[in-house]
UniProtKB/TrEMBL annotation:
PROSITE patterns recorded: GNAT (PS51186)
UniProt keywords, alphabetically: Transferase
InterPro entries, A to Z: Acyl_CoA_acyltransferase, GNAT_dom
Lineage per the UniProt record: Bacteria, Bacillati, Bacillota, Bacilli, Lactobacillales
Species in which this protein is naturally found: Ligilactobacillus agilis DSM 20509
Domain N-acetyltransferase, first and last residues per copy: 2-171
UniProt KW Transferase keyword: yes
Protein name per Swiss-Prot or TrEMBL: Acetyltransferase
Annotated GO MF terms: acyltransferase activity, transferring groups other than amino-acyl groups
Source domain of life: Bacteria
Transmembrane segments: none
SUPFAM superfamilies from the UniProt entry: Acyl-CoA N-acyltransferases (Nat)
Pfam families, sorted: Acetyltransf_1
Amino acid sequence: MIYLRPATMEELPLIMQIFTEAKALLKADGSSQWQSGSPNEETFKADIAANEGYVLIVDGQVGGYLALKAGTDPNYLVIREGSWHLQEDYLAIHRVMISSKFRGKKLASYLFSNLLSLAYAQNKFYLRIDTHPKNNRMQHLIKKAGFDYCGLIEISGDPDPDRYAYDLKLGGR
């Protein structure tokens, strides 16, 4: 059985292990994303405390994580070489990662499908996400999930700040 549910503080050590694995994979792929100290354990604690952190449960085990954040993301206020398709309330998707135990099993597709269902159930029909230009895996997953490329945003405080930005309007409403 595979499903998405809110993360708990008790799962933080598992989430941090998945983060360490994902960070190493990004580095091996030549991406500087997540290499400069952000996100960190405090980021994940804040996600969970705000009920914005979610774990993907795979056969009873934590197999992945993401943050689904409501409100204005300051990094999304300025976009270059393009524009957002809509100017309305959105959920921002951050920190998408899958445990190395489950890598290659197409679980990221389940994760995206579940998060879109979760957004819809919360009456949130517009989503935004970003990723590093060298994070080809995430770019593929984002496009496969139906997101459209919008332009470039910058991550404040990151030494390699450029990120590809995408958005998606859920249909049916």
